């Protein structure tokens, strides 16, 4: 059974550019959540996808968008990058969308915006 | 509005002794609580969880205690080992509404276990 994987591991972009981050869920998991972790802080919820539909969103602007594919892999897209978008981006998969379902995290993508 | 708080930024303990990490929350809707461990340059690793219908859950050296009336939970590690040195995050989720499935994290506590 493979765990959650993310690509790329590191990325450097300049302000105003667009970026796409990718995540493969753990086998058998149909729900994926994305989090942003700034330096020295806990992860902050961006949004969750369940069976290809957005299923809850945190306090992030619309330039943060996502997709979930039929195989339950997922993408996070960020448009018009700002310096404050520099962070570790984590995806987490879970067996189902239930609140009492453990989320398993990938290793993250470190995004640096210059 | 910090709904999950870990008030101790760091904790240092001797190998073999008990480590106690604390977490407070304010949202009464939270019904599931988790602890994660994170090493540098890695994603958080799930450690242990507890449902709001329980007050204790044990898994090997790790025990989580939940005090709903005080809105407080703690993670006990006994005995502590140098490999336990990491950042520990407390997280909570709530049933229903727009919070469904969302994990709310504390700021983390850096645990250092000295040999």
General description of the model:
The complex is a heterodimer of chains A (114) and B (115). Chain A is 0% helix and 50% strand. With 114 residues, chain A is mostly beta strands. In chain A, the strands form two sheets. In chain A, strands 2, 4, 5, 6, 9, 10 and 11 form a seven-stranded mixed beta sheet that branches. Chain A is globular, with a radius of gyration of 13 Å. The termini of chain A are far apart. Chain B is an all-beta fold and 115 residues long. Chain B is 0% helix and 55% strand. Chain B contains no helices and eleven strands. Chain B has strands spanning 4-5, 10-14, 19-25, 30-38, 45-51, 56-59, 62-67, 72-77, 86-94, 104-105, 109-114. In chain B, the strands form two sheets. In chain B, strands 2, 4, 5, 9, 10 and 11 form a six-stranded mixed beta sheet that branches. Chain B is globular and about 45 Å long. The N and C termini of chain B lie far apart (38 Å). Classes of the chains: A mainly beta (114), B mainly beta (115). Chain A binds chain B through residues 4, 6, 31, 33, 35, 40-45, 48, 50, 55-58, 90, 92, 94, 97-108, 110, and chain B through 4, 31-32, 34, 36, 41-46, 49, 51, 89, 91, 93-96, 98-108.
Q: How would a crystallographer describe the biggest sheet of chain B?
A: 6 strands, mixed
If helices are DSSP runs of H or I spanning 4 or more residues, what is the number of helices of chain B?
Answer: 0
Beta content of chain A: over 45%
Order of helices and strands of chain A: EEEEEEEEEEE
Structural class designation of chain A? mainly beta
Q: Indicate the mean pLDDT of chain A.
A: 92
